[in-house]
Specification:
Layout (H helix, E strand, L loop, with lengths): L3 E2 L1 H11 L4 E8 L2 E6 L4 H18 L9 E5 L4 E7 L2 E7 L5 H14 L1 H9 L6 E2 H8 L1
Antiparallel strand pairs: 1-7, 2-3, 2-6, 4-5, 5-6
Length: 139
């Protein structure tokens, strides 16, 4: 899904990106990629989003708990996954000590930008920059 980014959503993503040593950001709605600003191709971003949903489904299969965040630490890069409603935010970052700060910033981003994301989902006319333009400026 190629989405058009409104200027206010773009600036919110830019602020989140500049909040730490962030390598990439993925914004998803349900199991759809809305904004892919990861250093990967679109199909890899989609696989990552589907894997995070499968992971969340696995941990909540008993029905007694629901995970709202996951953090994965790897040798060269870390992945932070934040859920809010039907939205998923994946942040790839380098420094492990920034995980708590990025989690709070990501949660605030998802909470504050719900109307912008709704507008992104319901917009039918091209307004603002495309995701390709944002990704080019991001990398």
């Amino acid at each position: 899904m190629s989405a058009n980014i409104t200027p206010s959503l773009r600036s919110a993503l830019e602020r989140l990106r500049n909040g730490g040593a962030v390598n990439g950001i993925l914004l998803g709605w349900r199991r759809q990629v809305l904004i892919n600003a990861l250093p990967f191709e679109e199909f890899r971003a989609e696989k990552l989003l589907l894997a995070t949903h499968d992971l969340r489904d696995h941990f909540s299969s008993g029905g007694d708990r629901m995970a709202h965040t996951f953090w994965f630490g790897f040798e060269a890069c870390h992945a932070l996954v934040i859920y809010r409603g039907e939205c998923t935010l994946v942040i790839l970052h380098v420094r492990a000590e920034e995980a708590d700060f990025l989690r709070r910033a990501g949660q605030a981003f998802l909470e504050d930008s719900q109307l912008l994301i709704e507008g992104l989902l319901t917009s039918s006319s091209p307004v603002g920059a495309s995701t390709h333009d944002f990704k080019a400026g991001f990398l």
